[in-house]
Amino acid sequence: MDEKIQKVLEEKIHESTSRINEITSLVNSLGQAKNLNVFGRGIIIGRLYNSFYYQYRRILKRNPTEQEFSEFIQLLKEHENEFLEISFS
Questions:
Q1: Quick check: is 89 in a domain?
Q2: Which of 42, 55, 65, 85 is deepest in the core (most CB within 10 A)?
Q3: Residue range 7-22: average pLDDT?
Q4: Looking at the domain assignment, is residue 49 inside a domain?
Q5: Residues 83 and 17 sit within 8 Å (Cβ to Cβ)
Q6: Ramachandran region, residue 35 (left: φ > 0; alpha: ψ -120 to 50; beta: rest)
């Protein structure tokens, strides 16, 4: 993965996990969700997935390759414990 993009994604991971109040408000606004923690983590992963594609288009002017997408998944796995520690109830 491009170093600039990895740095941006690392920052986005920390930003997302520090904005739990915003995400909790969003999750709670949909009170019908059966598993709030799964839904909240989905929002975080969605933000990161969107940022991943956006940064490749913005910085490198192209879509990421399959290899780069695999590296993105590996980056998420490296931060899995951070995501699991978050509670949205």
A1: no
A2: 55
A3: 90
A4: yes
A5: yes
A6: beta
For the whole prediction, is pTM greater than 0.85? no
> Which residue, chain included where needed, has tokens 């993965």?
1
Please report whether residue 50 resides in a domain.
Answer: yes
Amino acid found at 89: S
CA distances from 70 to 28, 33, 53, 64 (A): 32, 30, 13, 10
For residue 63 the two structure tokens come to 């879509």
Tally the residues of the chain: 89
Range of the domain at 41: 3-84
Question: DSSP per residue over the chain, as a string?
Answer: --HHHHHHHHHHHHHHHH-HHHHHHHHHHTTT-S-HHHHHHHHHHHHHHHHHHHHIIIIISSPPPHHHHHHHHHHHHHTHHHHHT----
The more confident residue out of 83 and 50 is: 50
